[in-house]
Amino acid sequence: MRNEIKIGLALGSGGARGVSHTGVLVALEEAGFTPDLIVGTSIGAVAGACYAEDPDAKRCFQKIMSFTKDKDFLSTWEPFIPDNNGDNVFQELYGAATKKMAAFKTMIKPALTNADTLKRPLGILLRSRDFSELKIQFAAVSIDLISGAKQVTTEGPLLDAVYGSSAIPGVFPPLEKDGKLLIDGGAPYRVPVEICKQMGADIVIAVNIPSYTPEKTEYGSGIDIILRSDAIARDKLNEMIIETADVVITPAVSRYHWADFRNAELCYEEGKYATEQAIPQLLDVIKKRCSRSYKLRTWLQRKLS
């Protein structure tokens, strides 16, 4: 029954919270499911490529954990992590100075750091150099900064595709390729459900990484207000997109900051738990899709359209 349908996995963006994807993969494997195709955006592209290269979920988790512990990679995110330790005045002063320096750099340079800060650890994580070496059909989603069009990469150099999908604007430089400037696709294509369908998935499992919900709701600067406004708009767009998926898995990770990889293992656990809760729904969807009545209805709809 399972072999008659093609299951697609749409792995969304979410920064550090996206380590949840590895927990999702482990739970799916334990339930007897391996996706037939994977489409990823940003951290979803990183986890998706890792698993498509070597379809062993627990090994994928260990590799992603090693990836997130790279010292140069971690140092990139320090200016973005909120300081919750109000008892240490020196730490607060250091944090404030670091944030101001980061803001200044992004005003005078196209990115906070160079491409190698992300490409080097990605090159260690991913041994395959080309899409043709992958064991599972995979696509990485990015955006062309020039045209605003989405870029769905399914062939060619794997490292470039994953980097382009993960190049957060202002943090990493865009990927220059074929006259395009490719950046992180997480704004309009946070969970690439539609692309999964376009690539032939009969059933789409969407992994939706929720936005960070800070304990404090104070917005002390214009930048804070702009970022929050932008996040609200993206959340509303994302809600409409994930409604088109057959199964939506939303790990409870909104309390963790997108730049704070210190909570990676907790995110993994949340991803695994959320998926275990969704398995009965997935089985029900598969059962219905394999029924004769559903196939007949689908056939009639295609004939009449």
Provide a descriptive summary of the structure in words:
By secondary structure, the protein is of the alpha/beta class. Helix content is 48%, strand content 12%. The protein has 11 helices and 8 strands. It has helices at 20-30, 43-53, 57-68, 71-77, 89-108, 116-125, 158-166, 193-198, 222-242, 264-289, 292-304; strands spanning 7-11, 37-41, 137-144, 150-153, 175-177, 180-184, 203-207, 247-249. Strands 1, 2, 3, 4, 5, 6, 7 and 8 form an 8-stranded mixed β-sheet that branches. Helix 2 crosses helix 3, helix 2 runs antiparallel to helix 7 and helix 6 (116-125) crosses helix 7. The longest helix is centred in the C-terminal third of the chain and has 26 residues, at 264-289. The chain is globular. It starts with 6 loop residues before the first strand and ends with a helix. The model is unreliable at 85-102 (pLDDT under 50).
What's the quick description here?
With 305 residues, the protein is of the alpha/beta class. 48% of the residues lie in helices and 12% in strands.
